[in-house]
Amino acid sequence: MTTLQRAVLTVAILASLVAFLDGSVVNVALPAIERELGGGLVLQQWVVDAYLITLGALILLAGSLSDAFGRKRILMIGLFGFGIASIACAVAPDGVSLVVFRAIQGIAGALLVPSSLAIIIQVFSEDDQPKAIGRWTAWTSAAMLVGPLLGGLFVDTLSWRLVFAINPIPIAVTIVILWRIQLDHEHAHGHIDYLGAVLGAVGLGGVVFALIEQGQVGWGDPLVWGVGAIGCLCLVAFVVVEMRTKQPMLPFALFRIRNFGVGNVATLAIYAALSLGTLIVGIYLQEVAGYKATLAGLALVPATVVSLLLSGRFGALSGKWGPRLFMAVGPLVAAGGYALLLTMGTDVNYWLEVLPGMLVFGLGLSITVAPLTAAILGAVPPEHAGIGSAINNAVARIAGLVAVACAGLIVAGPLDQGGMRRVLAVCVVLLVLGGVVSAIGITNKRRRPQAATQAAIPTAQGPLPPTR
After folding, report:
1. Angle, CA 107 vertex, CA 131 and CA 61 arms, to 5°
2. Per-residue pLDDT tens over the stretch 258-269
3. What pLDDT was estimated at residue 185?
4. How many CA atoms lie within 13 A of 30 on its CB side?
5. Relative to the CA of 246, which of 99, 119, 141, 415 has its CA 20 to 30 Å away?
6. What is the C-alpha separation between 21 and 266, in angstroms, rounded?
7. Can you give the pTM of this predicted structure?
8. End-to-end alpha-carbon separation of the chain, Å?
9. Strand, coil or helix: what is 377?
């Protein structure tokens, strides 16, 4: 890698790491937060939900802003915003203030991930993108899996406030590196589809809100189904507006690109299984097997280690041989890991019943995620890398929310061995489905030159508008 590429990859990893880590590390701090600030279960729910709702609602807009005004600028705004919001969360005097600051964190977090991936696409050549995305994938996956363990250590040994107060340190390092980076060909055009932005934000926000809250109060609650219905109507209006406007925030022609469309379908199945499976395994180890929270977090670490060691390698191999084989085989290997976890009983032997499954699962993720991300982003024109990344992230997050929301229906009562096996069986089916979809739909064709690609994907009004 050149000096510029190394700096860009470091920035992309650190920026995304902060967003992903904060989303997972807070969960184990919730009891301590409630003990100090009060508010009961309602406060705990909203500390998590406020972040997820604003993040989910604004991620498409963030991708569009990245393409419109330049990735470096939007990334810098997101970093400053996330750092300030983190400090505010760390010193929050009461529960209401903490929820408000968490919502602001979600807004800033939405600016980080799409810009991070888009800046990789901008700087790395097509041949080098899979390996770079593999390294990005390894570290961000590690953040999601290690987060609960790190949060547990902070809460048990120091204070829950350190969960937020630690964020400005990596953010400051990232800002210094990013400030020194000089980027050419930002493809910034300064145009924002404001009506589409509002409809998309309200639509996604409403749907995410309904999916989260129905798990607590059910679909019969007027607020849940009312906000959910408004969200769905706004998404329908969003589609209509985007298909008719001359310069849409979301060019639906992107979905006509085979690897982009098929890759997002595979993402839907794979990330639903990932979110649902890791959630249930963690809860089962604590509530049924009797593991402490820290030990349950440690149980997931082997998958993280495998991902760290192998994701970059599989990303590089997919760049050489194409993503299809890896996207087909990887989910099947991950499904095998979940199948091994079906041997868990009520008295869990970690070395025989958990560790083998987690190692195989981690191997499957390593084979899958980097080629999946590279195939999706490598299929779109560079000037649309921001919105392409945002779409894929939105699909992954919605998949996780829907899957977790359905966990109660699958378990059908208090979590026991039978409920755990039903959930893992569903996860196995979803992963197999993701592998089959990839095997049938993904191609290894190299992307055509940018000008040719742009001319080949017409919108309702003709070719995609040139950047200015």
Report:
1. 70
2. 999 999 999 999
3. 59
4. 22
5. 119
6. 24
7. 0.80
8. 29
9. helix
Per-residue pLDDT tens digits for 387-430: 888 888 888 888 887 887 777 778 877 888 999 999 999 999 99
| Token pair for 176 | 């210094």
Place of tokens 């030990």: 295
Q: Which CATH architecture has domain 1-186?
A: Up-down Bundle (1.20)
The Cα-based distances of 194 to 103, 236, 245, 411, 465 in angstroms read 21, 16, 11, 42, 17
Q: What is the DSSP string of 408-433?
A: HHHH-SS--HHHHHHHHHHHHHHHHH
Q: Which residue has the tokens 């964190």?
A: 105
CA distance linking residue 299 with residue 311, whole number of Å: 20
Query: pLDDT digits over 16-71, tens only?
Result: 888 877 766 777 777 788 888 887 767 877 887 788 888 888 888 888 888 888 88
Q: In this structure, what token pair is assigned to residue 238?
A: 């969003």
At 169, list the tokens: 């340190």
* Structure-block tokens of residue 413: 């009562």
Torsion sign (Cα): 280, 339, 17, 257 = negative
**Other CB atoms closer than 10 Å to residue 352's CB: what's the count?**
11
**Pick among 1.10.1040.10, 1.20.1250.20, 2.130.10.10, 1.10.287.110: CATH of 245-468:** 1.20.1250.20
Structural domain spans, the chain: 1-186, 245-468
Longest Cα–Cα distance of the chain, Å, equals 63
